Request: fold
Amino acid sequence: MPFLYSPLPLPPTAEYHGLETGLKVAQTLLSSADSFSELFVRGDSELLVKQINGVYRCKAENLIPTYLNCRSIIKELKSSGIKVKVEHVKRKFNSRADELANKAMDAEETSPN
Reply:
């Protein structure tokens, strides 16, 4: 599955695309032998987590299609019997994810086009 990349993504855009990519992977696994019953999504964007959980509305026009797609995939997973939980984790407790993201961005900057 291809990963989405933009050289200068706005943080909410990158976070939403990351969530969407992960949910699509989970969606693909539904039809494979690698079945699962729970999906825990943890993110350090409190805004994104509250939007996905329906606490806040997504008002950014450029994010609405991705937001709606994420909500749709979550609904599909839940209707398939998967328990889906999206929760916020403070950035200081998410250092490994930041490290990996920075490593990926650094590798992309140094790779020839």
Observations:
- Residues 52 and 71 are 7 Å apart (CA to CA).
- The mean pLDDT is 82.
